[in-house]
Specification:
Elements: E1 5-9, E2 18-22, E3 31-40, H1 43-50, E4 67-74, E5 85-88, H2 98-101, E6 125-129, E7 134-135, H3 138-143, H4 159-168, E8 175-179, H5 184-194, E9 198-203, H6 206-213, E10 219-222, H7 228-241, E11 250-253, H8 258-266, E12 273-276, H9 289-293, E13 297-300, H10 309-317, E14 327-331, H11 335-343, E15 350-354
Parallel strand pairs: 8-9, 8-11, 9-10, 11-12, 12-13, 14-15
Antiparallel strand pairs: 1-2, 3-4, 3-6, 3-15, 4-5, 5-7
Helix pairs in contact: 4-5
Bound molecules: zinc ion (2 copies).
Length: 355
Amino acid sequence: MALAAHRWLMTAPKAPMVQSRFDPLPLAAGEVAIEIAGCGVCHTDLGYFYDGVRLNHPLPLALGHEVAGRVAAAGDGAKDWTGHAVIVPAVIPCGECEPCRRGRPNICRNQKMPGNDIQGGFASHIVVPARGLCPVDEARLAKAGLSLAEVSVVADALTTPYQAVARAGVTPGSLAIVVGAGGVGGYCVQVANAFGAKVVAIDVDAEKLATIGKHGAALTLNAREKDGKALKTAINEFAKQHGLPSTEWVIFECSGTAAGQLTAYGLLVPGATLGVVGFTMDKVEVRLSNLMAFDARAIGNWGCPPELYPAALDLVLDGKVLVKPFVETHPLADINRVFEAVHHRDIKRRAVLVP
Ligand SMILES: [Zn+2]
Ligand SMILES: [Zn+2]
């Protein structure tokens, strides 16, 4: 048996990706071959392609770690998945090591990230372990007016902030602040809102703020117009007006910029939680002792445990988190053009490549 498949391989940074044929079969025990419906283009992919961020798998490699599709073939022990619509976790923990068994899959040293550790989702098919796949109820999907390709963004853009919001302990009545309100940050606003928080969104882009003001942010603030002190004053006034606490703010840094990190850190109040969601190689200078003095905490977030994917997907299928206004699909064959367009910010929504 053979399965005709192709993938778009990165051969060197910035070199046009090239189409290459492969056969996903035979599969090892516990593996599935998924016929891809769509794979989102993430800024991490651009980092690998344009900025030389190190990949764990040697080149050539297909990038792409936001995959949704249908199980086309399954190895021993995974046959029940055949035919099912699924979302592939962006980071797949091994499930067997000591941290995995202790409930810390995020720090599994044997985890596999498509398009980094293994061949990724800019392809017609992908081979992954069946462990951790998130089933998609296609009747609910159709009812929500969504395609399987569109919910591929659940596999990173949504689940990364979902786990950050869940881990930070956002509850009804929390005051949540999201710095960097586009892409991942936009979903962070929506998820925190769905968890019952009143959400303040901060960005330097007026257009993004206007959009997120319609999708879950109760207050939007432009960091180009207000310095750190003025931002804090504005949020304090907002808190007073809405009967929200002046302590224990939950702050999410989603911009992945040094400026955004400084803004987020400057908003610490007693008992605050700072969730670091965005990534940058840049360094910032902060007074770390503010954490001590405020009895505050800063927490990192790497990926999202597969166990949380169904609940994150539920928010989308229930209409509590909107995906549709924030994605656009493009043919996979246009991958090189789409990467350029995302790189030059000509495409502002999440681009999903459809084979
Ligand atoms: Zn990503
Ligand atoms: Zn593990």
